[in-house]
Design a protein that fits this description.
The structure is a single chain. The chain is an alpha/beta fold. The chain folds into two domains: about 200 residues, TIM Barrel; about 30 residues. Helices cover about 35% and strands about 20% of the residues. The protein has seven helices and ten strands. It has a five-stranded mixed beta sheet. It has a five-stranded mixed beta sheet with strand order 4-5-6-7-8. α1 links the parallel β1 and β2. About 40% of the residues are buried.
Length: about 240
């Protein structure tokens, strides 16, 4: 089985405050024995043949991916083309999927409470036929996990595979939650295995220290982003 993570971010997305680039992510993932990765930056298609070749040299198969903002909600799209960046509505995504049946649509952190603005919540059930799988969110502890329980219940009810990911914005988040995929190391086999639930989640709850560390970093990133936003609003760029 292949050790895989299908939801990771890098600093190629300039709107996210991340300290490592895609190649540094590949290096770190290779050290942790990952064999399949998808870089899913926000609204940016980061995959390139050159990056895929670099990953291959490290023993990693790179799956094209993106975390799109669809009507204000986050949606992971695996194995799309560059033109996926233009998708902004659920209707447009349905049409894109009709024309690109090779994609796999994943519902990330659908009920996570601290991402109220971006979590799918009611939109997941409203568009349940659009989603191929539901994410098991890494950001939980032994006593704070009700959102994953709800996601798992929806997955079982509607016959969707539940897929563990790191949603990493920091390298220390790798290896906490991931998915083992029973597939050959090629895109058709990997996507087929996801669709047919030939997978196994490997996950362990975060310690209080790790949860606190991640929470503090998220808080400070929010403050920095807010400051940058206010500075840009006060001092708009001159044309």
């Amino acid at each position: 089985m292949l050790k895989a993570d299908f939801h990771i971010h890098t600093n190629e997305d300039k709107r996210d405050l991340i300290t490592y680039c895609a190649r540094e992510l590949v290096d770190a993932a290779a050290e942790r024995k990952f064999e399949v990765l998808a870089i899913t930056n926000h609204n940016i298609f980061t995959y390139t043949p050159e990056l895929a070749e670099y990953a291959s040299l490290k023993g990693i198969f790179l799956v094209p991916g993106i975390e799109s903002t669809i009507e204000g909600k986050h949606v992971i799209i695996l194995n799309p083309q560059q033109d996926v960046e233009s998708i902004k509505t659920f209707e447009a995504l349905k049409e894109y999927r009709k024309n690109h049946p090779e994609i796999f649509v994943l519902a990330p952190h659908p009920y996570y409470p601290h991402l109220r603005k971006y979590s799918l919540k009611p939109q997941l059930l409203k568009n349940i036929d659009l989603f191929d799988g539901i994410e098991y969110c890494h950001y939980y502890t032994r006593i704070f996990d009700h959102f994953n329980s709800k996601a798992r219940k929806v997955a079982v009810k509607y016959g969707k595979p539940i897929i563990g990911t790191s949603d990493a914005h920091h390298l220390f988040q790798l290896d906490k939650t991931y998915t083992m995929v029973d597939a050959e190391k090629n895109i058709d086999s990997i996507i087929s295995a996801l669709r047919h639930n030939k997978i196994k989640i490997v996950s362990r709850p975060l310690s209080l220290f790790m949860y606190s560390k991640a929470s503090i970093l998220i808080f400070f990133k929010f403050i920095i982003k807010r400051i940058i936003f206010l500075m840009r609003r006060e001092n708009p760029p001159h044309e």
